[in-house]
Amino acid sequence: MDRWRGLKDLVEDAVDHGSRRVERLQKDAAKLPFDLLEQIPPIKAPVRGIRLIHDTTLSGVHGAIRLVNRAVGGAVDVVLFLVEQKARPGEAPAGSAGATPDAPSGSSDDKVI
User: Fold this and answer.
1) Is residue 52, in this structure, part of any structural domain at all?
2) pLDDT, greater one: 99 or 37
């Protein structure tokens, strides 16, 4: 399971860092055209507004990508935990109150009266 967790962490980090890098590149690519257009007095104010919308939208999209990436990473962590627990049927899940690792499922010790 450690290898799967390591792979998950690598993919999650790659998506996060990749998204941040692409966001920066996209903003840098748009900078020169916006700078040039802002030098034209009649359209300076609208161009500033458009740049703000562009940059905000870009940050929002990449923020959503990173948020989904973290959510998927968390879901994969849960799945790996459950697979790991299923692979060890004789052990109680961590945090189980009153369960003993050697008690089989459904024993009289587990019944609630």
Assistant:
1) yes
2) 37
| 108 in any annotated domain | no
Does 92 fall in a domain? no
- The whole-model pTM stands at 0.70
pLDDT, one tens digit per residue, over 81-98 is 999 988 886 665 555 555
Residue 34 included in any domain: yes
Answer yes or no: is pLDDT of 110 > 90. Answer: no
Q: Residue 71, Cα to own-chain centre: how many angstroms? A: 4
Pair of tokens at residue 97: 């109150």
- Is the distance from CB of 80 to CB of 4 less than 8 angstroms? yes
